[in-house]
Design goal:
homodimer; alpha/beta; eight-stranded mixed sheet
Chain lengths: 265, 265
């Protein structure tokens, strides 16, 4: 796992905050039955974990991450929210410490994009999924970012994140590739649904929570890495960030598309 | 009106066929009351006209276009379908031959993208709309096209259409700009909704109707113009078209985003 996003306290707060504006988009067509056992693979600092555990209080979640410090933060969040239906485990998707066929559902959000071999990861996850169980995978696709009015400048800094992730062995354009990828892992009844987030000034809450915190925050966070990798110079970087903020003004718009795959074993 | 799409019989068939896979996407949140008078501004060869007139048989449509030959074809289609609720008129959006405040609703689909002054067009349309009446505007945004697996090659030919439209004074990236544009025309209660079309092999009907006929058909149609304007050479063109068709295979995906604006006078 070659995680491109930072490990600073600020970034960790952003990662949790970003779960909120995406909740409706990602969870509106999810459903778990009471008593079901769900594996959240790659829980990070617990942004999605908190919402899953709150929305399905009678479902039992097992949340894993390869980064022990993330697990610690996620654990704290779940304790603070007084939730009792999550068990955390420090584990690697590439070497899962579970019995075969032990979960009813597997939830994977913003994880495959960071992996060198997402197909292998899916096959590993499949092995711990019960026959007849299902999997939900959510990933973004940075090529489907768009904004107004200064798109070209903004595109340049977004492309830095794509290049950076590629240099770490990841793939920030994986959203549109979920269909052939999940198909290749031989899941059945696969359906992929795009989840588009569009923001204009009529939704000041989304301008703040999505455009600024979730999206621009994610880009700003890689500034030092982008400059260190010579992906862009400081002047172009600043122009790009200014362009992103310009899209949060009264006549600006911003959109981004996630893809959600759902399939059965 | 600087119409970039061709005027051949094949293209006219394509323009009508493309209305069908888009019907659910565009019409699912439309509603007209019996007896209402709706202006369809820029009806072209009647692709949308046919669906509107069929879906709202008790609504009275007035469909105009600046191109007389388009009107003739649209008329024929409505006659063949035995529909009696459409009146056609050869007219220019920039000089509307109607009394002020004579329509309950105005429907504008794939029109503003072709105009040099879309704001002026909206103000003209607003003047023939009744107070309290509403307007629906649907436009695409070519930057929000995306495909798999050969995106870069495909992007090059799609960008030719964007450049061609710009050279004719149009704007193929107008989708994301609808919010500030309609706002500037001082309509009220404006809402813009993205309408994303995503196609993979699980929907062979959409592979055929949307990817091939609607989208790739639209691109293929501008081949001669793109080459004549030196926007691309023949080899790159063919590579791009091949890449587009590659996305219609079993492991391919394609997506495109339209924007729908709805507002009141």
């Amino acid at each position: 796992m070659n995680y491109v996003h930072g490990h600073t306290p600020e970034e960790s707060i952003r990662l949790v905050k970003q779960a909120k504006p995406l909740e409706k988009l990602f969870h509106e067509d999810l459903s778990f039955l009471p008593g079901q056992k769900v594996l959240e693979a790659g829980c990070g600092v617990g942004g999605q974990t908190l919402l899953l555990a709150q929305n399905w209080p009678d479902t039992e979640f097992v949340s894993i991450d390869i980064q022990e410090s993330f697990i610690e933060q996620a654990k704290l969040r779940i304790q603070e929210a007084n939730l009792k239906n999550v068990r955390f485990k420090h584990a690697d998707i590439m070497a899962l410490p579970f019995e075969k066929e032990s979960f009813d559902h597997i939830y994977v959000c913003f994880v495959l994009e960071h992996l060198t071999d997402p197909l292998e990861a899916l096959l590993n996850l499949k092995s711990v999924l019960k026959n007849g169980g299902s999997i939900t995978i959510i990933e973004g696709d940075h090529d489907l970012f768009c904004c107004h009015p200064k798109y070209e400048d903004a595109r340049r800094v977004v492309d830095c994140l794509t290049a950076l992730q590629a240099s770490h062995g990841g793939n920030a354009l994986i959203g549109r590739q979920l269909y052939p990828l999940v198909k290749k892992a031989a899941f059945s009844r696969l359906s992929v649904t795009p989840k588009l987030m569009y923001v204009d000034a009529s939704r000041p809450d989304l301008v703040e929570e999505f455009s600024k915190i979730t999206f621009i925050g994610m880009i700003e966070e890689i500034k030092d890495q982008a400059l260190a990798h010579n992906l862009i110079d400081l002047e172009e970087w600043q122009k790009g960030i200014d362009a992103l903020y310009r899209s949060t003004e009264a006549d600006g718009t911003l959109c981004y598309t996630y893809f959600k795959a759902h399939a059965f074993k």
